[in-house]
Amino acid sequence: MVKIPLANAYKFLAPRPIVLITTVDKQGRINAAPMSWVTPVESEPPIIAFSTSYDSDTYHNIMETREFVINLVPAEIRKQMWICGKSFPRGVNELERAGLGWEPSEQVKPPRVRECPVNFECKFEWMYEGPEYVVIAGRVLVTHARKDAVKQGLLNVEAVKPLLHLSGRNFVIGDHRAGL
Ligand SMILES: Cc1cc2nc3c(=O)[nH]c(=O)nc-3n(C[C@H](O)[C@H](O)[C@H](O)COP(=O)(O)O)c2cc1C
Questions:
Q1: Alpha helix locations (H) across 18-165?
Q2: Per-residue model confidence as pLDDT tens digits over 24-56
């Protein structure tokens, strides 16, 4: 065994699925941000939580409008996902900047990302305010998956190739390390 520096410990809870979280502000302007500190916390009713910093537009938009959509990122859009992670001023639609498409959700105002094969439409449920990060939990109102993304009732990983995160620009596709 080797000891891992504590600041790097989270990097070993990996690989983690990457999602794009879409939100809108009060004026309805779209925002999209990649996140990988994401986890289900309850199944009935379904609750999913993620951790984000207080200065993210995602946090501010959810405080304003109390809705978000979690979109699963397939490996083929990793370059576009990376663009969405750059720091743009509030109000800029990262999906547009990255060349990704979007379409209306069924039950919430933030849109779904067209290129993402699975999405979870969520309503703010609760949050835990840590010193630097805030954990935001949402109740899943509805989940849609592309037909080919479902195999025997589970995620069709061969078809979707979900992009997994190690840390920074280091990803996993299948069982291989990958860059952008
Ligand atoms: C693959 C990937 C995963 C990320 N995961 C998180 C995360 O879980 N929480 C977080 O606060 N930021 C995370 N980030 C950084 C945010 O995406 C980045 O700060 C972004 O600019 C925030 O966007 P926003 O201000 O539009 O909300 C991640 C970035 C990448 C590229």
A1: 57-65, 78-84, 94-98, 157-160
A2: 999 999 999 999 999 999 999 999 999 999 999
How many domains are there within the chain? 1
Angle at CA of residue 60, ends 59 and 64, nearest 5° = 115
- From ligand 1's centre to the CA of 155, what distance in Å? 24
Q: What percent of the chain has pLDDT over 70?
A: 100
For residues 178, 54, 37, 158, the Cα torsion angle rounded to the nearest 10 degrees is -60
Whether residue 10 lies inside any domain: the answer is no
- Stated pTM of the model: 0.98
Of ligand 1's listed atoms, the one at least distance from the Cα of 82 is 31
User: Ligand 1 pocket by C-beta < 6 Å: which residues?
Assistant: 18, 31, 33-37, 50-53, 56-58, 82, 85, 87, 165
Which CATH number do you get for residue 80? 2.30.110.10
Does 13 fall in a domain? no
For residue 65, the CA-to-ligand 1 centroid distance in Å is 19
